[in-house]
């Protein structure tokens, strides 16, 4: 099983111009813990929207790579989004689901993935170009390469341990997060 | 065909002309009879990404992502779809994303299906509670002016704007076809 902070830290190493959407809860803290970056769009709400924000951004910015980093509960809430993304086939979109099989923010209740619901199988059924299960840190370089160069859409289901990591809270003002992101993107 | 009939038939074209004018690049929608002509126009426009959604709430995320990437987007839905979006609308106000929503009304005029009435009856009030500016269009001849004004309000001011296309404008659903 993966340590979430180690995995996300190595995944975002040398991230270049990668545009990152972070799903609410722990994925937002994980991305912030790697070092704040203006090309991070941190979600603090709108559960289930991360993948679709990724799609809108990927369609608007076809020359840039878009990474959606989110949790299993958040991804499950937007499961239909995978079908919508499968129709559009954005080649520059990668979704990495940090899967601890639990709802971490609300008391670690088991999620559907705990019962064996397979998000990679769902993504493949939704015509994703690739879908991968990862549970060993040795695979992180391969995943990072896919994030930057793989033909999307790709979904990675990363099995992380349910150990709680220290909370690293980024800015919460949505206007500030948005404006900072858009300004940094326009400078690329 | 008199002018009024022509206008009545062309209101989807009037909306589409404003999409072109303000540079809409992404259009999210759930297939809908009332919006069918407008959807067709968008699907055949190479400058527009048409994004067919499984549920309307996906469209709110799409709009936010498009705006982050510097593109303008519009959402097309029925009044019932507004109810599917409520929590997602929080994205708009929290971040100041513009949102142009075109809503075909059900359950308010010559409605065959009473199950459409409960959501249709609270659509405009729900949108107002979610901080949308709402405009109702009853007459085909008003589509151009109201949609034009709505586009400008949404994109000049980063505001959520909903235009409700009255069921009387859209016409009776033909159940015999």
Summarize the structure.
Chain A is of the alpha/beta class and 188 residues long. Chain A is built from eight helices and eight strands; from the N terminus they run αβαβαβααβββαβαβα.
What does this structure look like?
- The complex is a heterodimer of chains A (188) and B (177).
- Chain A is an alpha/beta fold and 188 residues long.
- Chain A has helices at residues 4-11, 26-33, 50-60, 72-77, 79-88, 119-125, 140-149, 174-186, and strands spanning 19-22, 40-42, 66-71, 93-99, 102-103, 109-110, 130-134, 154-159.
- Chain A has one domain (4-186): Rossmann fold (3-Layer(aba) Sandwich), CATH 3.40.50.
- The longest helix of chain A has 13 residues, at 174-186.
- Chain A starts with a helix and ends with a helix.
- The model of chain A has no long low-confidence stretch (mean pLDDT 97).
- The longest helix of chain B is centred in the first third of the chain and has 20 residues, at 3-22.
- In chain B, strands 2-1-3-4-6-5 form a 6-stranded parallel β-sheet, with helices on both faces.
- Chain B has 177 residues and is an alpha/beta fold.
- Classes of the chains: A alpha/beta (188), B alpha/beta (177).
List keywords for this structure.
heterodimer, A: 188 residues, alpha/beta, Rossmann fold, 6-stranded parallel beta sheet, two-stranded antiparallel sheet, 39% helix, B: 177 residues, 6 strands, 47% helix, globular
List the helices and strands and how they pair.
The complex is a heterodimer of chains A (188) and B (177).
Chain A lengths: L3 H8 L7 E4 L3 H8 L6 E3 L7 H11 L5 E6 H6 L1 H10 L4 E7 L2 E2 L5 E2 L8 H7 L4 E5 L5 H10 L4 E6 L14 H13 L2
Chain B lengths: L2 H20 L1 E6 L6 H8 L5 E4 L4 H12 L3 E7 H6 L5 H6 L3 E6 L12 H13 L3 E5 L5 H15 L2 E6 L1 H4 L7
Parallel strand pairs in B: 1-2, 1-3, 3-4, 4-6, 5-6
Query: Class by helix and strand content of chain A?
Result: alpha/beta
What is the domain tally of chain B? Answer: 1
Any guess at the CATH architecture of chain A?
A: 3-Layer(aba) Sandwich
**Helix/strand structural class of chain B:** alpha/beta
Give the largest interface pair and sizes. A-B, 35 and 32 residues
CATH superfamily of chain B: Thiamin diphosphate (ThDP)-binding fold, Pyr/PP domains
Strand order of the largest sheet of chain A: 2-1-3-4-8-7
Find the CATH topology of chain A: Rossmann fold
Q: Stretches of chain B where pLDDT falls below 50 for ≥5 residues?
A: none
CATH superfamily of chain A: Thiamin diphosphate (ThDP)-binding fold, Pyr/PP domains
